[in-house]
Known about the structure:
The structure is a homodimer.
Chain A: E1 2-6, E2 9-13, E3 29-32, H1 35-39, E4 44-48, H2 54-57, H3 60-67, E5 71-73, H4 75-88, E6 96-98, E7 107-109, E8 112-118, E9 127-133, E10 136-140, H5 158-167, E11 169-175, H6 189-201, E12 206-209, H7 215-227, E13 231-235, H8 237-249, E14 259-260, H9 262-265, E15 273-277, H10 287-293, E16 306-309, H11 318-330, E17 334-336, H12 351-361, E18 365-369, H13 373-385, E19 400-404, E20 409-414, E21 419-423, E22 426-427, H14 432-444, E23 446-453, E24 460-469, H15 478-492, H16 504-522, E25 527-534
Parallel strand pairs in A: 2-4, 4-5, 5-6, 10-11, 11-18, 12-15, 12-16, 13-14, 13-15, 16-17, 23-25
Antiparallel strand pairs in A: 1-2, 3-21, 7-8, 8-9, 9-10, 19-20, 21-22, 23-24
Amino acid sequence: MFLLESGDDIVVVDCGVGFPEEEQPGIDLVLPDITYLKKRRDRIRGLFLTHGHEDHIGAIAYHLPELRVPVYGTKLTLGLVKVKLEESGYLHQADLRELDPDTNATYGAGVFRFEPFRVTHSIPDAVGFAISTPAGLIVHTGDFKLDPTPIDDRRVDFTKLERFAKQGVRLLVSDCVHIETPGVTPSERVVGETYDDIFGQTEGRIVIATFASLIARIQQIIDVAEKHGRRVATLGRSLEKNVAMALELGYLSDPTNRLIDGREGSFLPDNEIVFVVTGAQGEPMAVLSRIANGDHRDVEIGPGDTVIVSATPIPGNETSVHRIINQLFERGAEVIYGQRARVHVSGHGSAGELATMLTTLMPRDVVPFHGEARHTALYRDMALEQGFEHEQIHIAAIGRAIEITADDVKTGDKVDAGYVYVDGITVGAVGDVVVRDRRALAQEGILMVIVVVDRDTGQIVAGPEIATRGFVHAKESADLIERAKEHLRDSIGDGSHYATADWNYLSRQLRDTASTFFHRETRRRPMILPMVMEV
Amino acid sequence: MFLLESGDDIVVVDCGVGFPEEEQPGIDLVLPDITYLKKRRDRIRGLFLTHGHEDHIGAIAYHLPELRVPVYGTKLTLGLVKVKLEESGYLHQADLRELDPDTNATYGAGVFRFEPFRVTHSIPDAVGFAISTPAGLIVHTGDFKLDPTPIDDRRVDFTKLERFAKQGVRLLVSDCVHIETPGVTPSERVVGETYDDIFGQTEGRIVIATFASLIARIQQIIDVAEKHGRRVATLGRSLEKNVAMALELGYLSDPTNRLIDGREGSFLPDNEIVFVVTGAQGEPMAVLSRIANGDHRDVEIGPGDTVIVSATPIPGNETSVHRIINQLFERGAEVIYGQRARVHVSGHGSAGELATMLTTLMPRDVVPFHGEARHTALYRDMALEQGFEHEQIHIAAIGRAIEITADDVKTGDKVDAGYVYVDGITVGAVGDVVVRDRRALAQEGILMVIVVVDRDTGQIVAGPEIATRGFVHAKESADLIERAKEHLRDSIGDGSHYATADWNYLSRQLRDTASTFFHRETRRRPMILPMVMEV
């Protein structure tokens, strides 16, 4: 999420979700924190979307009802947004406005004026924006690579880029996540060629796992399936919905009716079907994982079949993806994945493409965006090599404003920013404290110490009792637990010397005594939760 | 850990540790389960070690006191074992026997006879074994690559391999973990060349993070440091001990006294020092992580300094390694890691090298070993391409015996095998149940429901009280918790209708009622722990 603010006007670019990391257990999704925007709701003039990937549109269903602003996007992007809003029941209230990047049309929003320009990415209909602002022209690339042969034949609009350059670009906000790779990213086209090879060598069933939003990838599968006389069955709710929408809007073309219903696919001969499924990131409930486990209703995989995992694991997902690949091999299937063949290419430009964008636009200043510290640092090095000066390159931080005028760029105030968690059906109920507790619980487990006291005399009338989970096995460590209770009884006494009514001191004693005891015995520090019950 | 058994004789090859995966939270180490060996202790004739890496010798300190068998290894391998046994206090009781791979010496152990042969790996003094058995000659490669220019100039002993081949190899047990990479793995030598380039361009401090057991890597650092006029300071206990031992045994050579004490390094000018540190896998307590956090006592890193992360993250460690790299960039340091330059090469042979080993030995049968299902499956494909038949290739599984005679290989019985966990100072106290609980706690948190009942009347005299961690924030969700208590009171009543003495039914009622309530309210299922206290 990227904000521009000038006077009384705010515009927002993209509104995506993040995916929880290892150290955010139990979290379903990570949303941007929009506290800052909610406080200034009447000043937001529009939400402009660069493309339809989850990390750019995924939070709209959560945040749009609060922000109630017009949403601008290209046809496919809005199609994907509609699928989401329909599910959340907000579609009829949304004000969706289609952008046309193929003319020189511009779209006003307060003092700002947006001109979309085509870029190539791993989804069709992706754009960047040239934004006229009081400080000058700001170009936001969105996610891009310079694919010379994109599946939809719509290349990066260099005519517009050169026009912007001539006009003078005050600031470039550039994608930078693939800067670690030198040279250029291969075209999406090579994935189709790999598919063609694999289809030509396979007699059995073919299963291809990919992302639900990789519409271009699905077009390639349809094309290769046609060549090799196979039908294409999609499995996975998000995938099915996106395919239906993309067909309707004309972003998928299926002239010979390759696409069939998922369940139908299981009745066709092995060499006449390819299943396209979700779960390429190892998500445990998705179709690929269930196929690997052998508990998918419609697709059984065995010797002679081929599974293509057409994605690179996001860091943190490697272990789950490898587990699934291992399971598929154990079932006797041939498994083709990134380390074996080019079945996935990045949607982001490598260092060479990022440099080309930078030197085409020759902005006065540049902010590498959408990357980690290592990416922004390497982008800075690349820009220095291209002749830019240190003071032209600005490293942004989440929640830290950058103040830009016609003459100057400087770091501004800190604003409310960050993220909120989605967990179950609650948004924001689980915060950092809860997540920290979860991490601690996972590392060492928990141990409850309960005593019942007489509210009048302060005497302990039952307990200490101990219950534990995730620390030691209560049955196998019965002796340890018994000794702990004894030690607690000895240390605490009968309780009669504790003040009544306020049990904080007794609670603390229980916790500290148990903590010391168990650390001495096991060198570990489970979370200890003392409970004093009054009767 | 690999066992050979014939009649009354058992021999063991290697005894290493595994590292806990994401789904084994809180676990420090994973040891092989030696139940099978403990029951047959008087039949074990020896433990033969291929090389000194943790995943091959790391469990010796835990298991040797129970097994009490002679341990065979080359000089450096035994040196590393001694460091471990000294720490655990078992060294004086250990029977360590040095292997000489440079003669044709063989070592008898029951009906078996071991002949070690040199292989190259990312540690010096690595060997494989040719083992004479009643079924014929078994060759176990250990971990290997075919490095033409190893740092210690000791190449793979093809003379011996050809002699074994002539003699006839009944079974090859081969490394296979790097089979996904085609061709050959680069020589360790290229890492030294990269170091040389980096040292030549750096004026500031240099920090190199690597593994404590990569003795050859440390030799390269000493050599390059000498060339560029820097001293080498090691930081990290395991590293310091291993370096001292390797120097003493002559596996590290430091003719110009480059090596200095870690703390001394901090007093030298920036361009005269290189720090070698532990923590290249992102271990949170290791030196690299502390430097990145800015809380290492002796080493501060900033602009002008260069940090080399000379390792590839083990799958599952990517996020922690990336976090450290980001932190170092944020401090202004230049960070060189695998995606940027060749600062690490694998110690394992790629597909071409594995094929060379296979076709040099031309065994009658082959078992790919030490890999996951994807590795053994790809090794099988490679062997098929080399002209082997399906029935010559045997995929082993942990705990599943392979029965081999002069004429036949078949899958045998299942035996006790698997792993035990080290957690704190306890071995085996934390089992799968506890680890499963930890995972559940991390996903959804825990909720305790406590009531106090009168043991005579069964009446509830206090509670239900609720305590929770890792589920919702108790204070922010006070209303939810209050409603839950009310709902529990309404559902359970005053308790007088429950049978006294046996509170199982009441416990179950508490758990089920709370579970249903919270799932309805939050769509989540925290672990629920009911406690009934009697007064």
